[in-house]
Write a structure and sequence with these properties.
alpha/beta; 150 residues; disordered N terminus; 5 helices
Length: 150
């Protein structure tokens, strides 16, 4: 069963978005039934502040567009967010904003990543996929890396 066909039950909230998520246009907060200040504060938590939050999407850099996309994904407070290599094509500032957003996010995050900095800065629990099994790893990313190198 593909994730995009998964039907959330009344107790769950799942966001599924293609990795090439493209946001077009800009609606004011009142147009979507949300106070503008609440939207701006949420964007600000991902580093999209001041006049940057008012610019059309087509004028933003790739990293800035990614920040807006992550803000959009988390705005409705899903219970779990699935991320596949979320730091691909992000500049260092955008990765830092992503880490901050993930740390503040109140739901669960299932993330596949090879980005050591992203993993070390944003996870509090690691699971290792190896030889067809998934097992929890008690330790940090650096501990896991040391085990692999020994």
């Amino acid at each position: 069963m593909e994730l995009k066909n998964l039907k959330p039950r009344h107790t769950s909230s799942i966001f599924y978005g293609k990795q090439d998520l493209c946001l077009r246009g800009r609606k004011s907060g009142s147009a979507v039934g949300v106070p503008e200040q609440k939207l701006r504060a949420h964007l600000g938590s991902f580093g999209v502040t001041g006049n940057l939050a008012l610019q059309p999407m087509y004028t933003l850099s790739g990293g800035q567009k990614s920040r807006v996309a992550f803000a959009k994904i988390t705005f409705k407070k899903p219970h779990i967010v699935l991320l596949d290599e979320p730091s691909n094509h992000l500049d260092l500032d955008a990765v830092e904003a992503l880490i901050q957003g993930l740390v503040l996010f109140q739901g669960g995050v299932l993330m596949v990543s090879h980005d050591e900095h992203l993993i070390s800065g944003s996870v509090d629990q690691m699971w290792v996929v190896s030889e067809g099994t998934v097992t929890p790893f008690n330790g940090t990313f650096h501990d896991y890396k040391r085990i692999l190198q020994s």
